[in-house]
Write a structure and sequence with these properties.
Length: about 280
């Protein structure tokens, strides 16, 4: 009979934010797959837990995932944890969970803190409907494409960001969402220097030009105002296409980006742009 994989949440900062069930299972499982064994060992040491750890991170690949599932299929019980919060959410554990589903391995979730939900709760933004967007790509093209697809998103949007990339991300978001769009920057949640700054993109950019960002950030961005179903003139849509081309995008990609903002089909914009250039 195969064992069980326990998806175990851990504190996002304050070590007191842990449940009795989490503590019990961290000590009972045969092994723990950890994103960074050094970080997890600090947590285990704090609670005098000595469960064996194995490293499972974004570069581990399918070989390590198969090794874990082989142990589970052999009858061992295992846990998966991340450095902070819930594993398998914008996290390397996601492929392992899919593999366990494929192999019919039993799983149980042991919920714990989530930085995204904690930030949303304290952000002051609308919480009724929201979308979690995780980390943006480090590649400029992919990052801008991602943000452009969200230009008219009316739900509150949640992003994760590292301090060394924050200023660049704020600039890119201001370009797409508008400098006056409201957002809350939630920093170091549950830790000694927890801070929530409710502001706009223009104010945030000015602030962090003089105050270096520190700590891990969750950005909670207000959704766009609901728009009337009026389509912009084709001439204006084509100007948008040309602006993307001038920024270095290929025509097909420029039409794709413009289509997400204008409501026109990508092919219609492409044909109109080609005819204009003929």
């Amino acid at each position: 009979m195969s064992g069980t994989l326990y998806i175990i949440g851990t504190p996002i900062g304050n070590l007191e934010d842990i449940t009795l069930r989490q503590l019990r299972l961290l000590g009972e499982v045969d092994f723990l797959a950890a994103e960074d064994t050094r970080v997890t060992r600090k947590l285990l040491t704090h609670y005098d837990i000595h469960t064996p750890l194995l490293s499972y991170h974004e570069h581990s690949g399918e070989t390590v995932a198969r090794m874990i599932t082989d142990r589970l299929l052999a009858g061992e019980n295992g846990g998966i944890v991340t450095d902070a919060g819930m594993p398998c959410i914008s996290d390397p554990g996601e492929p392992l969970v899919r593999l366990c589903h494929t192999l019919g391995i039993s799983m149980e979730v042991v919920p714990g803190p989530s930085a995204a939900i904690a930030a949303l709760a304290i952000s002051g933004q609308h919480t009724g409907r929201f979308t979690f967007e995780g980390f943006l790509s480090v590649q400029k093209h992919s990052r801008m494409e991602h943000l452009t697809q969200l230009a008219h998103e009316t739900r509150t949007m949640i992003f994760y960001e590292a301090p060394h990339k924050l200023c660049r991300t704020l600039q890119d978001m201001a370009q797409v969402f508008g400098a006056a769009r409201a957002l809350s920057l939630c920093r170091e949640l549950t830790k000694a220097h927890e801070e929530v700054r409710c502001t706009t993109f223009s104010e945030a950019i000015a602030y962090y030009e003089t105050v270096p960002p520190r700590g891990e950030f969750v950005l909670v961005v207000a959704g766009a105002p609901a728009q009337k179903e009026t389509q912009m003139p084709m001439e204006e849509a084509l100007r948008l296409v040309r602006s993307y081309v001038q920024q270095g995008q290929k025509l097909t990609e420029a039409c794709k980006l413009a289509a997400t903002q204008t409501g026109y089909r990508k092919n219609a914009l492409y044909e109109a742009a080609k005819e204009l250039d003929a």
